[in-house]
Specification:
By secondary structure, this protein is of the alpha+beta class. The chain folds into two domains: 91 residues, Ribosomal Protein S8, Chain: A, domain 1, CATH 3.30.1370.70; 73 residues, GMP Synthetase, Chain A, domain 3 (2-Layer Sandwich), CATH 3.30.300. The chain contains four helices and ten strands; from the N terminus they run ββββαββαβαββαβ. Helix 1 runs antiparallel to helix 2. The radius of gyration is 17 Å and the shape is globular.
Length: 179
């Protein structure tokens, strides 16, 4: 299996690009080993001193904890992916949550996220999910390499907020929330 390791804006996160599809229609984030029961190779990665594993369309983002050094764990992560990744892996299909009660503004925000923002965020090894829109404030959850990234606040305000305000004038600001 070919693995292309890429830097992300978050110095604690690396992106491991694979030559296969991992997830269709979304992403999956594991915040601890117990959330990854179906994926033993992910549990092995957590044992190396990481705090987050994220599956995007064709990549795995890994966020190390503060006490780990990339020089110590990078090759081990690559070996785990090469040797323990399931040979018969089928892409995980995420069913989009649709709420019939979503209003038109929420749908327009979601469309801008999907078409203009998520592709750029995925290039950096992350994802952004709209959680709510109330009184002009779009609340979003940052995932993958974006979670805890030192530049995420700047990106959120200067890129995401600016784009959403431009395309959806009802949006007055964007705020990150964590679940």
């Amino acid at each position: 299996m070919n693995i292309d390791v890429q830097q992300t804006p978050n110095p604690d996160t690396l992106k491991f690009v694979l030559s296969l599809e991992l997830v269709q229609n979304g992403s999956i984030e594991f915040k601890n080993s117990s959330e990854a029961n179906e994926y033993p190779f992910v549990q092995k990665i957590f044992q190396l001193g990481v705090e987050l594993v994220f599956f995007g369309n064709n990549f795995i983002s890994v966020k190390k904890n503060n006490s780990s050094q990339w020089e110590q764990i990078l090759e081990e992560i690559k070996d785990i992916i090469k040797n323990d990744f399931p040979k018969n892996f089928k892409a995980i299909i995420i069913k989009k949550e649709t709420n019939i009660n979503q209003d038109e503004i929420f749908k327009r925000i979601e469309e801008v996220l999907e078409l203009k923002i998520r592709p750029a965020v995925a290039m950096d090894g992350g994802n952004i999910i709209l959680r709510s829109f109330i009184d002009g404030i779009a609340e979003v959850e940052l995932q993958g390499s974006c979670s805890g990234c030192p530049s995420s606040t700047l990106t959120l305000k200067q890129s995401v907020e600016r784009m959403l305000v431009h395309y959806v004038p009802e949006v007055k600001s964007v705020r990150a929330v964590s679940l």
